[in-house]
Write a structure and sequence with these properties.
Layout (H helix, E strand, L loop, with lengths): L4 E5 L2 H13 L4 E6 L2 E5 L3 E7 L13 E5 L3 H13 L3 E10 L4 E8 L5 E6 L4
Parallel strand pairs: 1-4, 5-8
Antiparallel strand pairs: 2-3, 3-4, 6-7, 7-8
Helix pairs in contact: 1-2
Amino acid sequence: MIDHISVGVSDLDRSARFYEAALAALGLARLVTRPRTVGFGKAYPEFWINLREGMLPVAPESGVHICLRAKSTAEVDSFHAAALSAGGASDGAPGIRPHDRVRYYAAFITDPDGNRIEAVTFPAD
């Protein structure tokens, strides 16, 4: 349904380094580098960051977040740890999130600009 997504960032170099570390845990790599945008993905760019000069930090109450699928709980854990090591902040430690229809394992982070990114998997046990 969704082909790709993008988020605005205030410092392209800083954010590219951040996302290279965080997204590597999910098997995504930097595939495209242009003067004002960087694309990450597996076979083609699925996740883009775009320079927005003068951008203010994303307000925590904005309600916007992006969720990326992980293959395992270990990938979710690695994503969270890598994001924190690269300058992000935790917005929800890795763990089981019970829901009315499905049980899932997820972690939430905010990037250096306040974009909220989640990694999720659906463990069988």
